[in-house]
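To whoever is on call:

I kicked off a structure prediction for a single chain this morning and the downstream step that reads the tokens threw a length-mismatch warning. I double-checked the sequence; it's 382 residues and nothing unusual in it as far as I can see. Pasting both halves so you can look.
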Amino acid sequence: MSISSKLPQVGTTIFTTMSKLASDCGAINLSQGFPGFDCDPVLVDLVTKHMKAGLNQYAPMSGVPILREQIAVKTKLVYGVDLNSETEVTVVSGATEAIYAAVTAVVKQGDEVILFDPAYDCYAPAIELNGGVPVFVPLELPDFSVNWENVKSSISDKTRLIMINTPHNPSGYVWTQEDLDTLAELIQDRDILIVSDEVYEHITFDGREHLSLLTHPILRERTFVCGSFGKTFHVTGWKIGYCLAPLKLTEEFRKIHQFLTFSTATPLQYALADYLSEPFRYLTLPDFYQKKRDLFCDGLKNTPFKFTPAQGSFFQMVSYAHLSQESDYDLAVRLTKEIGVASIPISVFFSDKKDHKILRFCFAKDDPDLMKALGKLQNIKL
């Protein structure tokens, strides 16, 4: 039987590859973006409580009402934005589903979608599976900021959607008010929508504020904002996210969501609703992760790498271009095997796989593991 693949260029992701290699080699896994520590035991107890209470059947398609209400409360507290929890908040099975459902809801055959390059690996496949055409706009190195003249020149009559990610993975760049205002100016007179991946919304550093697209009056009316409890509360394995969008966009989004997963794990939703009732549990995240970023960056000063501390996310990029011409993939594999520290080569995030001699490390790990990894990295020879 012959099968014509819809994604012929797609193989096993680098995250799976590097995590498996780290496991096989007994290396410290600073590659895949998941916390190396458990969630708050209180959250586990809440799940158990709701399971024992018999809340184990299908949740409503859009999410249990109390969780949607708590998301709306959080949005008001953090961003000063009022959302209708019934018509503008949808709970989904992870931010990846939210992104796919949003793209599927609005992208049709031949539509062009602007992506900022490098981009997280689930964006382009979602576009292509829906008949869309990815249009890659390179970010400006070394800080990975947006070149708005390039964005303007990339917009055409076929542009239907622009996908953004702030704080950005892999670079950690955090969008500014000027970024939001410029984007709004570019699209306000055009029939262009936005998907905004904001899964690291609570992980910003050095006093930087995450500016959700919800906070901009022009952008809010045409944006799907995708968030993740997995990133926020260290429960990536739960795969629970959400989509915030105005009524008309939410209606189209839910048409897709109901045929992807229909609903998301019920007791987990009730547990998260209870947990969100104490805002300090997410408001303290910037300080929590900044300590880890600072610890990691302080240790990196004793390595041969060059770097600028990340503005947000739980990733730190390092450059070795001044030391070696070895490919980033080969170096990532070699460091995993030879010194026992796994990372991600960021060429995999670029549409053309261009190698800028940069590795990405995840510092969302226990401090002893970070210190051990830094000790190994300080002894490398390139």
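Update from on-call: the warning came from a stale cache, not from the record. Cleared it. Sanity check on the structure: The longest helix spans residues 285-300.
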